[in-house]
Each structure stands twice: as C-alpha cells, then as structure tokens.
Amino acid sequence: MGNQVETLEFQAEARQLLQLMVHSIYSNKDVFLRELISNASDALDKLRLAALVDKDLDVDTADLHIEIEVDREARTLTVRDNGIGMTRDEVVSVIGTIAKSGTAELLRAMRESADAAARQELIGQFGVGFYAAFMVADRVELLTRKAGEQGGTRWSSTGEGTYSVEPVDTAPQGTAVTLHLKPADAEDNLHDYTAEWTIREIVKRYSDFIAWPVWMTVERPGEDGATTREVQTLNSMKALWARPRDEVDEAEYHEFYKHVAHDWADPLEIVHMRGEGTFEYEALLFIPAHAPLDLFSPQGRRGVQLYVKRVFIMDDCEALMPPYLRFVRGVVDAHDLSLNISREILQQDRQIQVVRRRLVRKVLATVKDLKTNHAERYRTFWTEFGAVVKEGLIDDAENRDTLLELVSVASTHDPAEPTDLRGYVERMKDGQGEIWYATGESRAMLENSPHMEAFRAKGLEVLLLTDPVDEVWVERVGAYDGKPLRSIAKGDVDLDTDEERQQAEAEREQQRKDYAELLTWMGGALADSVREVRLSSRLTTSPACVVGDAHDLTPTLEKMYRAMGHEVPSVKRILELNPGHPLVAGLRKAHEQGGDQGELRDTAELLYGMALLAEGGELSDPSRFTRILADRLSRTL
C-alpha cells in the first residue's frame, strides 16, 4: 500500500463550526472525553451487532473494551477502542464533513446565542461531539481500521480548515483518537487532562454507565520504591435501566440522558418502567426540557434505542414510539427478542406492538401528572412539544381521549393564560351547544378577524388555534365531551336566543327583500371567486367576510395538501355582507339607481378583497386590487 498523504479541506459549514467551538467560551471543557468515550462505545456496539449478523466476519468479540492512554511527557491523551472501525471513505464522510440536516440552522442559532450554556445545548443537539476535542487539543490524530479489512487510515488536523488523510499498512482493528493537548489553563477552565485523577473523575461523572469496560494503565509506587503499572477499570458498567429506581440518584439519570440524547441540558421528566409477564423488558425514557432543532425535519431523529439483554440492537427504533412522541429519548431493553431482528420485522412484531402501547400510555400518564401536579413544568412541555403531540389526535385513535385532556390552547377567555377543553366546557354559557374555535397564523390576526365580531359582542369564548396541525385535528376529532367543535368561519352562524331571533325576524325578512337584487347581481359579478353572496349574522362592524360551508376544506388545508403533492380542487367560498355597514348600504343604493356597472363591479371586487385580507387570506390579483383602490382613493382628494 502506498503512503500517499492527501490534504483536504473541511466542508465549509464544518469549518465554521470548528471555529465557533474552539474560540467560544465554554464553562465545561471536560465533556470532550465523554463524547470520545461515547463514540468508542458506539463502535463496540456496532461491532458486536455486525458479528452477530455476519457469521463470516472474522473478528474477535471476546475482549471488547475502551482504553485511555496518557503520555505526560508528550502531553497526549489517546482514547482507543477495538470496535467496528472505519474505512477511508467513512473517515472523510464522518470526520471531514457534517452530514447532518440543519447544520446551517445550528450555526445561525449559535451565533445568535449570547451565553455559553446555550451554545453547549445547541452543540449537543446535533451530535457533533468529536469536534469538542479541538477545545482541548492543538492537534487531533485518528488511526482506524475497519473490522474485516487489512489496511487502515490515519487522519490528522489542527482544526484550522484542512485535514490530512493517508493509508497505513498496519493498524489495529478499531479506532484510536490521539489528542495533542493544549497547556493547562485554570482561568480558561482547561484542566490537566494527563492527570490520572482528572480522567478518573470525568469518566466516573459522565461514562460510568457505559456497557463496555473503560481501562487505563495507572502507576503506583511499590514497596521497594519501584514504580508498578497496572490496568484498572474506571467505570462500573452497570446498566442504569436495569437498576431499581430507588437505587439511582437524579444526577445519574441526568448524565445518562445526556449520553443517549446528545443533549447538554437536564431532562424535564424521567420515565422508568419495567414490564413483566410473557414479555419482559425494561425502559428508561426521558422527556427533554426543550425541542431539538430537527423536530419537524423529515431527517430528524425518531424513536428510542433498542437493546436485547443489554446488547445494542439499533438506534432510533421507530417501532417503539409513535411519530407524535418522536421527541422522547431513552432505552428499551427487551429480554426475548432475537438479536438479528430488523426494523421491518419490528414493525410487524406483536410483542413490540404491546410494548409500544404500554410505553405510550406511560408517557402520556406522566404528562398528565405534570399537568395536574406541576403546572410550570407542564407549561414548558406544552410550549416545546404541544404542536407535535397534537399530531396524535389525528393518528392515535386509541389514546385520543387522553390526548384531548392534555390539549392546552389560547382562547379569548384570557389574553395570557391558555385553557384546556375541560375548562372551556365548564365556562360555556347556558344554552351554548358548541365549542367555537378559529384557526389562523397568529392570535392577533384571529382576534381582529371579522368572524370574531358577533362572538365578541355576545361574550362567547373562542379557542384560538394557530398551529398548522390544528386545521386537521379539529376536523378529525369533531367533538369533545359530547360538544361539537365548530369553526367560527364555516357554515351559518346564528348566536341569537329564540327571543332575540323572534324580535329581529321582521327586520331580517325586510333586509332579505331589500338586498335580494344586489346579492343576485354580486353573485354573478364575483362568480369566478365565490360560490354565493348572502347577508351575514356574524358581522357587527366590518362590511364583509368570507366563510366556508360546514364541510369545506379551509384555504390553509388546501395549501398544506398541495404542498404535500396532493391534487385538491379549488374550493369557492361564500361572501357574507353586513347590511348595517354604510359601504354595503351605499352599494345597494347605487345598484338600485342603475349606477355605472364597471364602477359597481370594482366596488364588489374591493369588498371581496378586503374580506380576504381581513382574515389573513391572499388576493388572486394583488395588482388589480391596489389599482382599483388607488383610483378610488384619488377621487376623495
């Protein structure tokens, strides 16, 4: 094998990320060792799995371990494993670039973050822990050989923008990462990472739960003054999920969470459970305190880690957690599954489906307990994950009733405090049969919508739903506690009591007669845009509004379906006019007197355009609308 050294440039975003990490102020640089040990542990897990799946793979898995080696004179620290190793192409792909979605978003968020703790959280979210080595090292070298292959690869970089890669004829199986350490600097929280007790303390704090032994050769003075050397195991290797909860303290849970979630913050809630009977398993799950940046990314993480009898099987096991709980992190250790089980088999496995149902019920019960007994923590949870949890109202009919009790949304009842559906029902007025809601982009837009006027006048509470998923789940659910969910922008809305309706009937009948010709004419003039023009009972101050029939798709839903590639017919809506508004009354009078048809048509278009804009809609021809409006305004000057 030739000894050709290639010098390559880091991917642009990787280079920026390196600079941010190296030159930013971090309160805790010790985490670099946790990240390197975690990477080594993953490599050992992968080798064990590869050996189980591929019986022809010629590797020895009897003595898998992680080794830390220190050279105090050369000031180097090496973390070595005899795991799966990497090929040359994998080294360039994994180390030379960051093949993660959302890296640009990470960089932007880091630049905007003012404090070091927040930056650490962002780094943790994207799993780029290897780069943390450059916080403590002037140069990093990596020597690796893929299991089952002959030659190895050496990688080296100072983190300044380039790295070198060269083939090597002989290399031990696995990966060794050697850090040429910077001088210790107490003011910069840069410890002496060649000191035994510093390393021992970091491993104990961060990596005590690693399933593989972490070895280090230590020196001790002998009886005759000679120095003796012995290999010691630094970690306990106890699987945290297999220990009773009363034997695990909070700090251990928090450190384990940071390992499996690649997060730098403590979890919001811990779910530790054990399943016994015909199918035994242990689960240690965590609800994070903040949403990851890739929560809504199709390439984002999904699911929890799956082990079988403490042997790692797969990361991000989607079969164990539904998509609407994709933020849950943790470990499920099943006792009776095959080690060769695949993702496809898991999707069909009846035992896995049983475990999944139990995990979901336990997580939802934990969230319900937060809502009942820990209001502030529940508020944090719903702020971070409410939009995702509401997806379950669409897909998870089995747990829909439980999810409905968890829903927390804004309403007109209180400008600051959200409400749940139970609270809304308890505040319903006598004779009110529906739960009224409005959907849109923002609370301010909804509160100022013409559709809200009659409800404000009657003092009726309206739920203000501003997440895109709200458009779907309210239609799918349909009702809560026997009360139908109704949109204030759909169908006929008549909020009068029987007595008020009787008193106003004569006036309404007269209005229908007076406006019959105008409504017929406007229906024809706007036939390309609207299905019908009618008088409104929901407007008090605005001249017009646009509504849909009870079962029509909303404009927002139309956009969502088209964005997903679905062909949906364009839905014509209904234009409602306020007969008490001077503009509408003036238009009727002008029409009766035989006014200029072009002028009247322009006024009708203006009314329709204003109604669309008032609800946050989009004009089909903005330039025409502004041209007509400018012409009308110029005549008033």
Automatic annotation (TrEMBL):
Gene3D superfamilies: 3.30.230.80, 3.40.50.11260, Heat shock protein 90, C-terminal domain, Histidine kinase-like ATPase, C-terminal domain. Pfam families: HATPase_c_3, HSP90. The keyword Lipid metabolism does not apply. One of its GO terms (molecular function) is unfolded protein binding. ATP binds at residues 35, 39, 81, 86, 100-102, 125-130, 175, 343. It is found in: Cytoplasm. Keywords: ATP-binding, Chaperone, Cytoplasm, Nucleotide-binding, Stress response. Residues 1-343 are annotated as: A. Residues 344-559 are annotated as: B. One of its GO terms (cellular component) is cytoplasm. Molecular chaperone. Has ATPase activity. Belongs to the heat shock protein 90 family. PANTHER family: HEAT SHOCK PROTEIN 90 FAMILY MEMBER. This is Chaperone protein HtpG. The lineage of its organism: Bacteria, Bacillati, Actinomycetota, Actinomycetes, Micromonosporales.
